[in-house]
Specification:
It is a single chain. By secondary structure, this protein is mainly β. The protein has a single domain, classed as 7 Propeller (Methylamine Dehydrogenase, Chain H), CATH 2.130.10. The relative contact order is 0.14.
Length: 384
């Protein structure tokens, strides 16, 4: 059955051994405490070269980068850490439905506009529709990536680098595909999307095309290759979101590279070294993303050659970006949304939220730009 689709980072052991978790946590703590973080430069007065208006706002409660808002079928799907899931009317932000799952959420929401799915912190995949729970199933491992709901199925990417398909109506397990990989993984959103009749997942530093009917591997393309002298240095997981235009899928391998593949052929178009840790987005001409220091970069989609770079947003803890029309939107750790020109990165305008970090990428909901903050504010702006 074809399917179609209309900052801090922790490490976890692939086997989830408590000792390994402690080692990873200690390693990151030592790295962060031994280095004083550079402070961002003061921003100049806002340029205000384009007009925007706050269309609506809503409150969901505290969230994190793995709980990115999602737009489907005129609805904005949002969730919070504590277990609330809501479908908001994209026109006015009012609740269409809202439900409490009574358990913390680790990843979500995925939806086709009707069925919505999230993954809880106790490894349960939960499907909902019209404000009621449909089913729950236990997953064999943790997940930090929103489920993909498509073709009356729910697809899940777990932290042990396994992709599993479930029946959307019953929750019955249909198939599972596991790929061997490094023992450590990121507790960060990965890549899972549909391109035509192919399911694409980010597994280690590779984009892998799967048959959605049975999980058979159709192709796999490395965006980056593991290197280094230890498990941390060899970690090159694909991080979400990725940028898809037609059969062109571009993604980032954590702190290693950015690259594009041709999903219709399963071939690598290009890959370039890059040090960023968040996902990318783009249009038919350019791919956009931030580097680890907050430098914001545009690459030519066809060749990977640099188009431009700006450094005025360095050290601001940038989210993954969203390309929309003539601008690119990116959130920061102080709750600002920066709209920059796609042509050269110059500032077009700047938007304010509740002052808490914007960790997940902004989304386009119809004609509105939507972000969700760490404190749970959901904000939507429209151009004037």
């Amino acid at each position: 059955m074809p399917i179609s689709m209309t900052r801090s980072y922790k490490l976890v052991s692939r086997r989830a051994l408590p000792a390994a978790l402690l080692v990873a946590a200690a390693f990151l703590s030592a790295c962060s405490s031994s280095q004083k973080k550079p402070q961002p430069a003061e921003l100049p007065p806002v340029a205000a070269l384009m007009g925007t208006q706050l269309a609506w706002s809503a409150q969901m409660g505290p969230s994190n980068a793995s709980l990115a808002p999602l737009f489907a079928a005129g609805r904005v799907f949002v969730a919070n850490n504590a277990g609330a899931v809501a479908a908001l009317d994209a026109a006015n932000g009012k609740d269409i439905w809202r439900v409490s799952l009574d358990t913390p959420i680790a990843a979500g929401v995925g939806s086709d506009g009707q069925t919505a799915a999230v993954i809880t912190r106790n490894n349960q995949l939960v499907a909902m529709a019209d404000g009621r729970e449909l089913w729950r199933v236990r997953l064999p491992a943790r997940s930090f990536t929103s489920p993909l709901v498509a073709g009356q199925r729910v697809f899940v990417l777990t932290a042990d680098r396994t992709v599993t398909a479930f029946d959307g109506k019953t929750g019955a397990r249909l198939w599972s595909q596991n790929r061997p990989a490094e023992p450590l993984v990121l507790s960060q959103t990965g890549a899972l999307l549909a391109v035509g009749d192919t399911l694409i997942a980010g597994l280690s530093g590779r984009l892998v095309g799967l048959n959605p009917d049975n999980g058979a591997v159709r192709w796999e393309v490395p965006v980056a290759t593991s290197r280094g002298t230890n498990e941390v240095e060899r970690l090159v997981d694909i991080v979400g979101p990725v940028s898809r235009i037609g059969s062109s899928v571009c993604g980032r391998a954590y702190s290693a590279a950015v690259g594009c593949v041709d999903a219709s052929r399963g071939t690598l178009v290009w890959t370039k070294g890059a040090q960023g840790t968040t996902g990318v987005h783009g249009d038919d001409r350019l791919v956009f993303g931030s580097e680890a220091d907050g430098g914001f970069v545009a690459w030519q989609r066809a060749t990977g050659e640099p188009a431009w770079r700006i450094d005025r947003l360095k050290y601001r803890g940038l989210s993954a970006p969203l390309a929309l029309g003539r601008v690119v939107a990116v959130g920061d750790s102080r709750g600002l949304v920066h709209l920059v020109s796609r042509e050269d990165g110059s500032e077009m305008t700047r938007l304010t939220t509740d002052g808490s970090a914007i960790e997940a990428a902004p989304v386009l909901a119809g004609d509105a730009l939507v972000v969700q903050t760490r404190n749970g504010g959901v904000f939507a702006w429209r151009p004037q």
